[in-house]
Amino acid sequence: MIAAPSRIFLRTATAIGGRNALRALVARGASAPFSSSCSSSAAGSSAVADRKTTSSRKHASSTRSWNQQVARRHKSALPRDEDPIRGGYDSSAIYSGPAACSDAGISNLGITGPSTIYKNQTFEELFQHEVRNDEGGVNVDWGKVNQPTSPEVFDELYEKAVNYFNTKEKCYVFDGFCGANPKSQRKIRFVHEMAWQQHFVTNMFIRADHESDLDGFEPDFTVINACSQVDEDWERHGLNSEVAVVFNIEKKCAVIFGTWYGGENKKGIFSLMHYWLPMEDPPQLPMHCSANVGREDGDSALFFGLSGTGKTTLSADPHRALIGDDEHGWDEDGIFNFEGGCYAKTINLSEKTEPDIYRAIHKDAMLENVALKGDKLVPDYFDTTKTENGRVSYPIFHIDNYHEPQMAGHPDNIIFLSCDAFGVLPPIAKLTPEQAMYHFISGYTAKVAGTERGITEPVATFSACFGAAFLTMHPTRYAELLKDKLEKHSAQAWIVNSGWSGGPYGVGERMSIDTTRSCVNAILDGTIADTTWEKDPIFGWELPASIPDVDSDVLSPRNTWPDQKEYDDAEKKLAEMYVKNFEKYIGKGDVDYSQFGPKV
User: Dihedrals φ, ψ of 425, to 5°?
Assistant: First the structure.
């Protein structure tokens, strides 16, 4: 197998020639989040500024004779500045409604469009807006995953890909869509040399129902996949290897070289959705999660988690309808699938343990990295001699109980899945909204065998937002969007551990799918509300005393260890890892969530 490369984005704002591009990116980054909070509180209503001084409020009120609605004043989540001079500067006002420009004194300039004006904001309030708007730089969070390159490198690789396809007598083109909600749906075009790669995207993206749906199709983004070719000049180009995955956001095009991995086709577009959606107006939240919905009540649920945590398995519930297994968005209407198919792991797959996925593997499903046995080429999901990263892609309609609209209302429950290799985390725990933000940003799990090359034993890892490999902006931006959603829709967040119990990997045993499924069922059917709770002294989350079909001793992980002193030491060690990992996020957002993590 070829290791998946770091995703490389083109940064057009380089040297003097890039100044205009830099400013354009900054303007877009600032306008979307900022304007998202600039919606009128009610259609046709006006609002006076909520000032601290009575005389100012009286003056504002005297300018109107119609019904008025006082705007809620934005409260800073940061501590008040103790400097009496700096903290004393506070004459802020927020004008909302059709008369906002007039009230703020800018209509005489000809500016009449904005319906919300922030005037004379305090230093703390301005800081919040600056952070929320991601001002002062390009929106891409450059680092190990998103690495900048030059326009010249992209142009050279683009030309190489085009020249290669011009030597071919045939190629394959797929026009489809990403995102089930038409309001934010993107048109995507793939150009492939291999029919099986085209088969993959046909399974995974949203297909046109009729030829007329593609009339006048103009792609929002195009991917040219020359998987059989490599970048021989990778060192001169400043890349990591001859494998190249290069995205030019401005030219709306990407080129892929040297990786035959089918998943790279979808992962790149998923990363772009993480770039596009937060800049929508209002901002939308892209998520690495699966989702399903109740058949009768229509209650939706999200399952966040990395590969190997049970995200695909647990969302494929015979009692609920599947929305999707990997990539979703959350907007003002609710949640929606990005994809038109599923991409499931096949290691140790059986009909008994994962019936929905097993039965989805029939005509048009496509196996990848799976051993085939005998003259009839029967798949052997237990043969891992080549790799443990066996996969299958199939259209969403291969799941019998899939949710045809691929959209649902706002979720009632948010489940963070972890595969804890230390045997410390409980099978289930309830989180406060603040704790939910901490654990969302942390994204703790374990890299289990088969998910990455070279991993033969579980290794503890933290992946921001349970999908750091897909994030194009800083993790705190997505956390702020999730916080707003949780607060607005009163969703409950949970930790569910599908990892080890009774000791660490090699000593304890991995929890059965039945145990994990019972924990999830208790959340979704509401029976968990009937139990009592006990607070964990280190992590602060609450543990249930009982859950149907689950041994009560298992619910308290300390009780499952032969030596409870060893458990205490292991819990402290893991808590310290959480704290150490979170240090890089302190001071990055408008709220310091480190105070809601474990206490060591």
Answer: -65, 145
Look at the block and give the residue holding tokens 């907007």.
331
Residue whose entry in the numeric block shows the structure tokens 């929606």: 336
Classify 460 as helix, strand or coil: strand
The residue written with tokens 């300018």 in the block is: 63
At 127-162, the pLDDT tens digits run 667 666 655 555 788 888 889 999 999 999 999 999
Q: What is the pLDDT of residues 2-36, one digit of tens each?
A: 334 445 565 333 332 332 322 223 233 333 332 33
The answer to whether 68 and 47 are in contact (CB under 8 A) is: yes
Which residues have a Cβ under 8 Å from the Cβ of 181 and sit 6 or more positions away? Answer: 329, 331, 333, 336, 407
Positive or negative, the Cα torsion across 331, 336, 340, 341?
positive
DSSP one-letter string for 433-459: HHHHHHHHHH-EEEE-TTSSTT--S-E
The token pair that represents 360 in the structure block: 């989805």
Q: CA-CA distance, 336 to 317, in Å (whole number)?
A: 18
Structure tokens at 596: 């809601």
Nearest to 152 by CA among 14, 294, 343: 14
pLDDT band at 80 (very low <50, low <70, confident <90, very high): very low
